[in-house]
């Protein structure tokens, strides 16, 4: 591009600068990873305090004004440094809490002792999301003393337990977080060597359905055949959630379309562990099915266990159903559709109650405009390959919270992960070569946004 906002010399100078920063970034990442900052209640929260403090210290060292805020939940770090007069402000998000390590025996090296093997750094949080914090530090360090934009850093301390106090933080501290572009570094790239921008996330509702047919349990030999039991009625109701192909059959739910990337059944089977001979379900492209269409998954049933069962017509039974939603679906509209579906499919006049257990919005970026153009250019500079737009089938509640709070900001969901990262699992790891590219891309992104005409 002849009218590019950055020259190739500026791009290669930033690559060289970041390459020189990598040993320091790696050392700081290892120090953060050694702090077992598991935000789940059952774990010692002193470590979460320590990771907030360590994050704050790294940001103070770059000259940012730093505060640690708590709004009824875990400590979050907010830091800011002004840019040149009139330059845009970019907010950089990551989280300093981590998932529990699980069973140490499942790890090939201790979860909180970062260890390199075959170009990957293993450790709980080494990728998710302490490498996200360090990518932001890389961008700040690459421009030390001459930031091209204003930067606000927000590092949350409870992402892994659902960001419960995030709405209050946004309400009370939102003005400090206001920005023209928001980089949320907590997602994944498409493959090693293939960068991605996450432009859609699915929403979610979780419902509990309770079916009752009798006011007490009765002998199945005496009344079975004429009197329905609640488990059979519940199972028949649950069976109506899908058609024969396994596609969701709840009328009125929206269905989206995913971007057109190569993703074949072999890769799906490999990544999911689907057994040979078991069908793939649903209709449409595989990526539509896992990123953009609704799902209905029965995740739990309350009924007598096999071991404790007896020859009884069971009077009442419940199921919890997790329903993923198309990225642009309104969760309350979806809940209304589920209620209508249940009412229309009640077997044998059974009493049925539906209760909403949880809900969260999805996200669908309008991934166009100058900020997205510069982001794609920065990724291309770093990898030598243009990024692809991907969806993520899961839900990240904080993305919707930011999109709602700052509707005029461009929301960029980036990340340090790759398909082998195993975030949340045993042997979580960061690909160190890809990590450097993530750092380069973010440093170049700040330069590009600062160079946009204004
Ligand atoms: Zn994360």
Automatic annotation (TrEMBL):
<dbReference type="Pfam" id="PF07687">
    <property type="entry name" value="M20_dimer"/>
</dbReference>
<dbReference type="InterPro" id="IPR002933">
    <property type="entry name" value="Peptidase_M20"/>
</dbReference>
<keyword id="KW-0479">Metal-binding</keyword>
<protein>
    <submittedName>
        <fullName>Dipeptidase</fullName>
    </submittedName>
</protein>
<dbReference type="Pfam" id="PF01546">
    <property type="entry name" value="Peptidase_M20"/>
</dbReference>
<keyword id="KW-0645">Protease</keyword>
<dbReference type="InterPro" id="IPR011650">
    <property type="entry name" value="Peptidase_M20_dimer"/>
</dbReference>
<dbReference type="GO" id="GO:0046872">
    <property type="term" value="F:metal ion binding"/>
</dbReference>
<keyword id="KW-0378">Hydrolase</keyword>
<feature type="domain" description="Peptidase M20 dimerisation">
    <location>
        <begin position="201"/>
        <end position="347"/>
    </location>
</feature>
<dbReference type="GO" id="GO:0008233">
    <property type="term" value="F:peptidase activity"/>
</dbReference>
<dbReference type="GO" id="GO:0006508">
    <property type="term" value="P:proteolysis"/>
</dbReference>
<dbReference type="InterPro" id="IPR051458">
    <property type="entry name" value="Cyt/Met_Dipeptidase"/>
</dbReference>
């Amino acid at each position: 591009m002849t009218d590019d906002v950055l020259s190739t010399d500026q791009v290669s100078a930033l690559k060289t600068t970041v390459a020189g920063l990598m040993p320091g970034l790696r050392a700081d990442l290892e120090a953060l990873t050694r702090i077992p900052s598991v935000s789940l209640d059952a774990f010692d929260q002193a470590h979460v305090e320590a990771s907030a403090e360590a994050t704050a210290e790294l940001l103070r060292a770059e000259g940012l004004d730093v505060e640690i805020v708590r709004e009824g939940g875990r400590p979050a770090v907010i830091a800011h440094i002004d840019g040149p007069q009139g330059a845009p402000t970019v907010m950089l998000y990551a989280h300093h809490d981590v998932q529990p390590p699980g069973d140490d025996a499942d790890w090939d090296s201790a979860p909180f002792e970062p260890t390199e093997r075959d170009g990957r750094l293993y450790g709980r949080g080494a990728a998710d999301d302490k490498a996200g914090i360090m990518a932001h530090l890389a961008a700040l360090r690459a421009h030390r003393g001459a930031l091209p934009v204003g930067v606000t850093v927000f590092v949350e301390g409870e992402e892994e337990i659902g960001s419960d106090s995030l709405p209050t933080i946004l309400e009370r501290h939102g003005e400090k977080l206001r920005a023209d572009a928001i980089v949320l570094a907590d997602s994944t790239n498409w493959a090693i060597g293939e960068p991605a921008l996450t432009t859609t996330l699915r929403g979610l509702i979780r419902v509990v359905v309770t079916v009752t047919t009798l006011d007490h349990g009765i002998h199945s030999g005496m009344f079975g055949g004429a009197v329905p039991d609640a488990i059979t009625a519940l199972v028949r109701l649950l069976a109506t959630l899908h058609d024969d192909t396994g596609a969701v059959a709840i009328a009125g739910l929206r269905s989206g379309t995913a971007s057109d990337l190569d993703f074949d059944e072999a890769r799906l089977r490999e990544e999911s562990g689907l057994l040979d001979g078991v069908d793939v379900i649903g209709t449409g492209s595989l990526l539509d099915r896992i990123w953009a269409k609704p799902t209905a998954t029965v995740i739990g049933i309350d009924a007598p266990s096999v071991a404790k069962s007896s020859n009884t017509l069971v009077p009442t039974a419940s199921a919890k159903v997790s329903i993923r939603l198309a990225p642009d679906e309104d969760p309350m509209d979806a809940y209304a559709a589920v209620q209508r579906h249940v009412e229309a499919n009640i077997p044998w006049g059974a009493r049925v109650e539906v209760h909403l257990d949880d809900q969260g919005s999805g996200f669908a970026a309008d991934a166009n405009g100058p900020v997205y153009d510069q982001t794609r250019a920065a990724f291309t500079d770093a990898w030598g390959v243009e990024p692809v737009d991907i969806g993520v089938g899961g839900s990240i509640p904080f993305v919707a919270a930011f999109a709602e709070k700052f509707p005029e900001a461009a929301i960029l969901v980036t990340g340090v992960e790759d398909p082998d990262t195993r975030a949340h699992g045993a042997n979580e790891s960061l690909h160190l070569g890809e990590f450097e590219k993530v750092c380069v891309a973010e440093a170049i992104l700040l330069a590009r946004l600062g160079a946009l005409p204004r």
